[in-house]
Amino acid sequence: MVEKASISFERCCNELEAFQIGPLGDQKGREWSFISKGAITEIIITCDGYAVVSFDFKGVEEHGNVEYSDTFGRHYEEVYKIKLDFPEEYFTSLSGTYYRGAVAYYFSSLCFHTNRQKYGPYGYVVGTPFEFPMKGRVIVGFYGRVLTEEAWIHGTLGVYVKHSTDLLGPNSSQAQAVKPNTKVIRSIFNQEECIKVGPWGWSRSSTEEEWSYMLKGATKIKIGYNEESIKWISFESSGENGEVKHSQKSDISNERHEVISLNWPEEYLVSISMTLRDTIKDIESLCFYTNRTIYGPFGLTKSRNPFRFYMKGGIIVGFHGRVGDYFDALGVYIKPFPEVFSSSGQGQIENTEVKAGTFGGQGGKEWNYKQNGAITEIKICHGRVIHSLSFKSVDKNGKSTYSDRFGGEGGDTDLITIFWPREYLISISGTHHTHKKQHVVESLCFHTNKKKYGPFGGTQGSHFDIPLKDQDIVGFHGRASNYIDAIGVYQ
């Protein structure tokens, strides 16, 4: 069974859809990529005693010309070769295991799946398993990172995929009923026309059943949880004609529940994240990310087993999973953005301000900092946790504005200087943890378009980040007392 899945996101590259697969962790090292003009026909994998350490790829384009990649990583003594007879056989999916080493995450084993069979595992099957099933897609390229110091494959691994109909023609055995650029909103509710990803979680129930639900118009999502884990989830949607659709009813006795209301098409889901309990491995907490904001986390976040699925250029249009005595697993159905919204602009979202977060505890007083300018300095005071934050902004006329100090006294001080306009804030990440019986922000990293600053503070708590893309951070908000209790951003 899959204990924990990996980060995943979708992005566009011409007509390609690219899904990145890799565990949570620092984005260290040097990026690499190889995209075939046709299809990948051969992969050479080398391993050492601990992990997969290098790749070589061979591709063939439509006229039969052969393409060879560089070597990504470093060669080692254990060498494996996969050779396919394209177009009869082609790569469709990827799975494996990973573990956290001294300086990064590593892939301890990998399996490569085709339309005919599975190749592998290559390496050593230890650590946390992941899988990324895709339907109706052909892998035409790979990308990831290598540690600059050691030249090892690590941390992230991604695939570029095309629709099977684009590469193999309409008679492909994996052909989809809807062509890639169909722009009829109703088509997004058909499971067979969507990409099914996951589910992620753990089978713990003595008896369990699979379930699925396709979103339809304006949607309410109800999440039931207690002090231990997520107990149930239910959906209610209303379509274009006003009809209301319900998912299966759930037993909501003795559980707290929250309701998310999404006003389709102005607001839609783009990501989910969760944590799994350390020992039992059922779902402990859930977050839902939309194009407008973040809902959650719902449930406690004590675990150090995080998972996140996020995309660029795609929309979550349904859910599926397993349920029994426990809420065991959750997955999603997704569609590329151009297949959801019509060319007339229905559902297109204006470039409005997004308020994301907060992450952390519930204590302290609310604080806000948002100016008509760019943030150019951040002063952060920290020890084991984040004690306080203050900011400086500069407007288009060069006028500087300074914030109050949010939080308490104490801690070591670091000053981040951002060289705007060449450099600007795009994201934050960190951990939150209980400190002296108070749940607070334990550590912070500030990400710009140029580099990452931090982490500042300890790093033992539950991880969080804000994965909204293609927007600048223009302000911060949260709660504070003698520490920074919680933090979020304006984008």
UniProtKB/TrEMBL annotation:
Gene3D superfamilies (alphabetical): Jacalin-like lectin domain
Pfam families documented for this protein: Jacalin
CDD domains for this protein: Jacalin
Record's keyword annotation contains Acetylation: no
Transmembrane residue ranges: none
Boundaries of every Jacalin-type lectin domain copy: 18-163, 194-336, 353-491
Keywords: Lectin, Repeat
InterPro entries: Jacalin-like_lectin_dom (IPR001229), Jacalin-like_lectin_dom_plant (IPR033734), Jacalin-like_lectin_dom_sf (IPR036404)
Molecular function per GO: carbohydrate binding
Family per record: Belongs to the jacalin lectin family.
PANTHER family named among the record's database cross-references: JACALIN-RELATED LECTIN 11-RELATED, JACALIN-RELATED LECTIN 3
Protein name: Jacalin-type lectin domain-containing protein
Organism encoding this protein: Dipteronia dyeriana
